[in-house]
């Protein structure tokens, strides 16, 4: 089963479709600034759970973030968990530059 993922900027989300079907199988919603993309919610339709739709959404979104030189803020638990299991993407994570004063 092939999963096609595309960015739909006007909806502020990535959409996944399976096997060329018009039905959206899953979405990853985001907020984007010129330097940062925050992934805030991911949802996969029940019929497609466990079929790799969520992973395809995350991998495509992160690969595109890397290509655009964006830092990633993973507020969505699915994104955060996926990145924790894939260390090759951890360099994308946003790190606060603020310093705590004593």
Please give a structural write-up.
Residues 6-94 form the N-acetyltransferase domain. Its EC number is 2.3.1.-. Keywords: Acyltransferase, Transferase. Pfam families: Acetyltransf_CG. This protein is an alpha+beta fold and 102 residues long. The chain contains 2 helices and 5 strands; from the N terminus they run E-E-E-E-H-E-H. The longest helix has 15 residues, at 53-67.
Biggest sheet layout: 5 strands, mixed
Secondary structure class reads: alpha+beta
Tell me the overall shape. Answer: globular
| Spatial separation of the terminal alpha carbons | 55 Å
Task: Report mean pLDDT, rounded to a whole number.
Answer: 94
Structural key phrases:
single chain, 102 residues, alpha+beta, 2 helices, acyltransferase activity, Acyl_CoA_acyltransferase, transferase, EC 2.3.1.-
How would you concisely characterize the structure shown here?
It comes from Streptomyces parvulus. Pfam families: Acetyltransf_CG (PF14542). This protein has two helices and five strands; from the N terminus they run ββββαβα.
């Amino acid at each position: 089963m092939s999963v096609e993922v595309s960015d739909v900027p006007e909806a502020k989300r990535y959409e996944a479709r399976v096997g060329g079907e018009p039905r959206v199988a899953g979405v990853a919603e985001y907020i984007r600034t010129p330097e940062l993309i925050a992934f805030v919610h991911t949802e996969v339709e029940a019929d497609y759970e466990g079929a790799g739709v969520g992973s395809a959404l995350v991998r495509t979104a992160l690969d595109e973030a890397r290509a655009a030189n964006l830092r990633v803020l993973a507020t969505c638990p699915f994104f955060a968990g996926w990145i924790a299991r894939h260390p090759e993407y951890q360099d994308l994570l946003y790190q606060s530059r603020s310093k705590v004063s004593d």
